[in-house]
């Protein structure tokens, strides 16, 4: 738009009339009022003028050669670029049906000829004011939508941050509380085994030195199977040793998963994070009741160490693996077209010297087209009420894309499974690393 003498923007008005006298009169009067005015003497010229520069308002005669005003209006309303231009009809037709049709095709006002210019001017000003207010409202709505989106994102970040803090505290507490008693048990098992071996040797010595035991000992030996006890005792101690070792591995997995006591960002082995996450999810991978066992197939490349926020990357692994397990637990993918059992593939590879890729794929039912467009939206979830708040994939996206300058994408077709692809730089830009 241009500017008038008072520095306010001038409206651009297109006047369409096949009567030269009317066209000159209206044009001159509007120019005198400070408007930019363009003229057209038929419908086709009017459509061409509109395509060249979109006007703020159109004064449109109905009786035009070849294409009447109604048809011009209909053409304009079909085009997204021109459908919101206010159109005021000017016509000598004063029948009610003509006026009704004018409004039906999209006109905003109707002025009957002969007209008073003051009336035309006031109606133009009213429509331009309405148009301006509608434009302001549209801008405010856009700003409001942006604000709501930012609010949701901030809310999601706050909730996830609180979850991560709580998870870290929980992991720290569990690891500390379990580690001490397990250390006591594990540390005492070795001397206990040695003491038992010594006691058994003593019993064998007594048997050799006193081959004829007393009646009381003979009676006890008849009720008590010494050989069975000796063999079973070794099995019990071995089972206790294996159990404590497994608990120690779980504690180590918790420490790797949460990276307790380590700096926020440092070079790490991503395979350690994946394996520790799988160990923590082991209880969900085993067969239970009607649920089939979920097979894990790993294909690890020789990856370089990746500088990242390790605990956050592990959170991404946990969220993606949990989603795959949730899909397979529904019974989806128990038998697929390839006749495979429920399966999750974890594939790592070096894309180039500065970037690695992690792919997590399952053979579930995949993602529908309706869900795909909303997958990374905050609070969107396909799970029943109470079983998820829709922050998992939003958090994954923020951690990978926004915090680590990586990429998170997915491939999925219904009944063909789903694959999430993480691309991570081996070294984050503009980030100080504490080794």
Side-by-side strand order of the widest sheet: 2-1-3-4-5
CATH superfamily label of the domain at 264-435: Histidine kinase-like ATPase, C-terminal domain
Number of strands: 12
Task: Kindly identify the CATH topology of the domain at 264-435.
Answer: Heat Shock Protein 90
Distinct helical segment count: 12
Share of helix, binned: 40-55%
CATH class type of the domain at 264-435: Alpha Beta
Straight-line distance between termini:
59 Å
Classify the beta-strand content into a percent band.
15-25%
Q: What is the average of the pLDDT values?
A: 81
Mass-distribution shape: rod-shaped
Describe the sheet with the most strands: 5 strands, parallel
The name of the CATH architecture of the domain at 264-435 is 2-Layer Sandwich
Radius of gyration: 39 Å
Low-confidence stretches: 1-7, 332-337, 385-391
Order of helices and strands: EHEHEHEHEHHHEHHEEHEEHHEE
Structural class: alpha/beta
Enzyme class: transferase
GO molecular function: phosphorelay sensor kinase activity
EC number: 2.7.13.3
Modified residues (4-aspartylphosphate): 61
Give the arrangement of secondary structure elements.
Blueprint: E1 12-16, H1 20-32, E2 36-40, H2 43-52, E3 57-61, H3 69-78, E4 87-91, H4 96-104, E5 109-112, H5 117-209, H6 215-223, H7 226-258, E6 266-268, H8 270-280, H9 282-285, E7 295-299, E8 306-308, H10 310-329, E9 343-352, E10 355-362, H11 369-372, H12 392-403, E11 407-412, E12 418-425
Parallel strand pairs: 1-2, 1-3, 3-4, 4-5, 7-9
Antiparallel strand pairs: 6-8, 9-10, 10-12, 11-12
Helix pairs in contact: 2-3, 5-7, 7-8, 8-10, 10-12
């Amino acid at each position: 738009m241009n500017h008038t003498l008072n520095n306010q923007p001038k409206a651009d008005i297109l006047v369409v009339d096949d009567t030269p006298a009317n066209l000159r009169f209206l044009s001159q009067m509007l120019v005198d009022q400070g408007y930019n005015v363009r003229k057209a003497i038929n419908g086709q010229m009017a459509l061409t003028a509109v395509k060249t520069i979109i006007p703020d308002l159109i004064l449109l005669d109905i009786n035009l050669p070849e294409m009447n005003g109604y048809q011009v209006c209909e053409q304009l309303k079909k085009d997204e670029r021109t459908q919101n231009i206010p159109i005021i009809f000017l016509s000598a037709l004063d029948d009610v049906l003509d006026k009704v049709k004018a409004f039906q095709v999209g006109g905003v006002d109707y002025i009957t000829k002969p007209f008073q210019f003051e009336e035309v001017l006031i109606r133009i000003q009213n429509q331009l004011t309405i148009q301006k207010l509608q434009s302001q409202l549209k801008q405010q709505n856009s700003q409001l939508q942006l604000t709501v989106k930012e609010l949701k994102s901030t809310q999601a970040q706050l909730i996830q941050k609180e979850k991560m803090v709580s998870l870290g505290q929980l992991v720290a507490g569990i690891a500390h509380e379990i580690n001490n008693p397990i250390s006591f048990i594990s540390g005492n098992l070795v001397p206990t085994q040695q003491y038992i071996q010594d006691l058994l040797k003593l019993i064998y010595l007594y048997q050799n030195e006193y081959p004829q035991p007393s009646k009381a000992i003979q009676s006890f030996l008849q009720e008590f199977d010494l050989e069975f006890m000796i063999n079973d005792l070794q099995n019990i101690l071995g089972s206790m040793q294996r159990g404590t070792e497994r608990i120690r591995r779980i504690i180590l997995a918790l420490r790797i998963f949460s990276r307790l006591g380590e700096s926020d960002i440092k070079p790490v082995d991503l395979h350690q994070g994946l394996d520790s996450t799988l160990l923590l999810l082991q209880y969900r991978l085993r067969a239970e009741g009607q649920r089939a066992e979920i097979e894990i197939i790993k294909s690890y490349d020789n990856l370089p160490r990746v500088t990242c926020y390790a605990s956050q990357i592990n959170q991404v692994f946990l969220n993606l693996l949990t989603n795959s397990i949730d899909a397979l637990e529904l019974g989806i993918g128990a038998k697929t077209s390839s006749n495979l059992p429920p399966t999750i593939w974890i594939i790592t590879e070096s894309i180039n010297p500065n970037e690695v890729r992690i792919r997590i794929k399952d053979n579930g039912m995949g993602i529908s087209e309706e869900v795909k467009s909303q997958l990374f939206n905050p609070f969107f979830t396909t799970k029943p009420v109470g079983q998820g708040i829709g922050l998992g994939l939003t958090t994954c996206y923020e951690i990978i894309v926004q915090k680590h300058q990586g990429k998170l994408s997915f491939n999925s077709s219904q009944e063909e499974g789903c694959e999430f692809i993480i691309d991570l730089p081996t070294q984050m830009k503009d980030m100080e690393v504490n080794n």
